[in-house]
Design goal:
This protein is mainly α and 562 residues long. 70% of the residues lie in helices and 1% in strands.
């Protein structure tokens, strides 16, 4: 059979290139190992490069004896270069009990507490599925690629095309799973926002509700402690530009899978038709009587021993025999076709199941929060706080030992070069090198980072409070305008209050501001609200701090004007 022959040739091609196949699998395994142990591999390679004799980076850095006196801590700039290079490996594992609790809280608020990201076995399954799909596609299209080329070249081309199709399907199904998970969480946010609006009567956009300063990495996970659960979820979503379900990738993926399944089945049926025609021409499925026996038209019956008189069998016998032969032949062809179609259906079913599994894995592994993956590595990989602390203590000790080893190598090279230096400041630093350790650099760096983060957090908090106050004022003006309109409509049939009565006791600007700040604006007109907000903005911009005497003078002047 042509298809079996092509498949056998694919297996032979793999056998002939077994070393290349093993190398490809080894490369994939190393890549997966690198992704899972990236910090370890990178730090080892970087330490080797720094300490390499003659051409290593320490050999060049040791020539620079310039002193850095930042924040009162004296270091050679070359020493700080090494510290900066290896500090990130330590800082990634500089976690404590607060980090564990905060990471768990972040995952809970992002609804990722029960989600497991893509791991080694997930990726291994995907790689195997891609290879199975690629061989299947190559098996189907092997006879239709480069028809004028050699058979081996056709198979190689078919394998490459199969790999490309499988890779495209992998990316498409992966993204489709993510979009399904996003749609689920978007619908949850929208439903809970609608329920919140029904309960509180407050209508505002998701943009106004979102606090972009919330972050686990910058230790600002507490900014929305008192907010609604859906707002806490909103503050942690990856993409909040458009909080609405999307179906473009889902539709595209379904159409692509159906088209590929139909195309593969069509190609298989074409091959089947060609094979059936080949069987008919070759007579592979036909009924033959043994050689030398009478068949069909040459069957005769001797009536006499001398054979002088012969008589042909009745035509009914000949027709019956021919009909039986045709039926047996037709039954053989039908059985072969039914078996082929059953095989095609089973292969199509396997193809669709593989795509469904790829989508399902991506759907289950999708993490809603923009920082959930980092938080997961801190919290969910451990069964207890003691296990967490032990793991990170070991990682910190390892990172510190790597950094200290590279720093020691640099300092030994600096000592050798500093012997020719006559600068007292440089020699003093050289003589005190034993006190400048990588641990000391870490402590000084942490202190500087803490101060920087404290100032940054305060700026973010101040900015957020200002933005929320501005949004609150905008909502107040909008609501007051709506209430004023309703008040005018309800009082249209009643006698209006005399203008003279309104002017008898005009409200001072301070009273208006107090009512606005207390959100009690039912007695204020639109003009009073606008005047109050203008005065609030003016005082804020000019940073007015009135004394009691100035306040009395201003109120007296306003009363005189009125």
């Amino acid at each position: 059979m042509t298809e079996l022959k092509d498949f056998a040739e694919i297996l032979l091609l793999i056998k002939d290139n077994i070393k290349l196949v093993i190398f490809a699998f080894s490369l994939v395994a190393f890549f997966i190992f690198f992704l899972m142990n990236r910090d370890y591999v990178e730090s080892r390679v970087k330490a080797f490069w720094y300490r390499l004799p003659l051409i290593g980076k320490n050999a060049r850095l040791s020539k620079n004896l310039e002193v850095d006196d930042e924040n009162g801590h004296k270091w050679f700039k070359s020493e700080k270069n090494v510290g900066n290079a290896f500090y990130p490996y330590f800082n990634d594992y500089n976690k404590n009990a607060d980090s564990y609790v905060s990471a768990t809280q972040y995952l809970n608020r992002a609804h990722d507490n029960s989600t497991t990201p893509m791991g080694f076995w997930h990726w291994l399954f995907i790689v195997v599925a891609v290879l199975i799909e690629a061989s299947s596609f190559a098996y189907v299209i092997a006879g239709f690629t480069l028809t004028d080329a050699s058979n081996a070249l056709q198979i190689q081309t078919a394998v490459m095309i199969g790999l490309v199709i499988s890779a495209i399907l992998l990316v498409l199904t992966h993204k489709t799973g993510y979009q399904l998970a996003e749609n689920k969480i978007f619908n949850k946010v929208l439903d809970e926002r609608a329920d919140y609006q029904r309960r509180t009567g407050i209508e505002t956009s998701l943009t106004n509700l979102k606090n972009s300063s919330v972050s686990w990495k910058t230790k600002l996970n507490h900014l929305d402690d008192n907010k609604e659960p859906f707002i806490q979820l909103l503050n942690r979503l990856k993409d909040t530009k458009s909080i609405k379900p999307k179906y473009g990738l889902i539709s595209g993926c379904i159409i692509t899978i159906i088209c590929i399944a139909i195309a593969a089945t069509y190609i298989r049926t074409t091959v089947l038709d060609g094979y059936i025609n080949q069987m008919i021409e070759s007579g592979e499925y036909s009924t033959h009587t043994p050689s030398g026996s009478a068949t069909g038209d040459d069957i005769s019956l001797s009536l006499f021993d001398d054979g002088t008189t012969e008589r042909q069998p009745p035509q009914e016998v000949i027709d019956t025999n021919k009909a039986a032969e045709d039926k047996a032949y037709s039954d053989q062809i039908d059985a072969f076709v039914r078996g082929s179609w059953a095989t095609f259906g089973f292969l199509g079913f396997i193809f669709i199941v593989l795509q469904w599994l790829s989508i399902l894995i991506s759907y289950k592994a999708y993490m809603n929060g923009s920082e959930s993956l980092e938080a997961y590595k801190v919290a969910k990989k451990f069964n207890s706080l003691d296990e967490f602390q032990s793991y990170y203590r070991e990682k910190r000790d390892y990172a510190e030992s790597i950094g200290q080893a590279v720093l020691n190598d640099l300092q030994s090279k600096i000592r050798e070069r500093a012997r020719t230096s006559h600068s007292g400041n440089e020699m003093n630093l050289v003589n005190n090198m034993q006190h400048r350790t990588f641990r000391m650099y870490i402590d000084q760096k942490d202190e500087a980072n803490y101060e920087f983060e404290r100032k940054t957090r305060q700026k973010q908090i101040d900015k957020e409070e200002q933005e929320q106050a501005e949004r609150h004022r905008t909502d107040m003006i909008r609501n007051s305008s709506s209430q004023h309109t309703q008040s005018n409509q309800s009082s249209s049939g009643q006698e209006s209050e005399p203008q003279s009565d309104r002017n008898e006791n005009p409200r001072s600007i301070d009273d208006i501001i107090k009512l606005i700040e207390a959100a009690d604006i039912s007695l204020l007109s639109d003009k009073e609200i606008m005047d109050g907000y203008r005065e609030i903005e003016a005082r804020k911009n000019k940073k007015i701090e009135e004394t009691p005497q100035e306040r009395l003078a201003r109120i007296r002047a306003e009363m005189e004007q009125n």
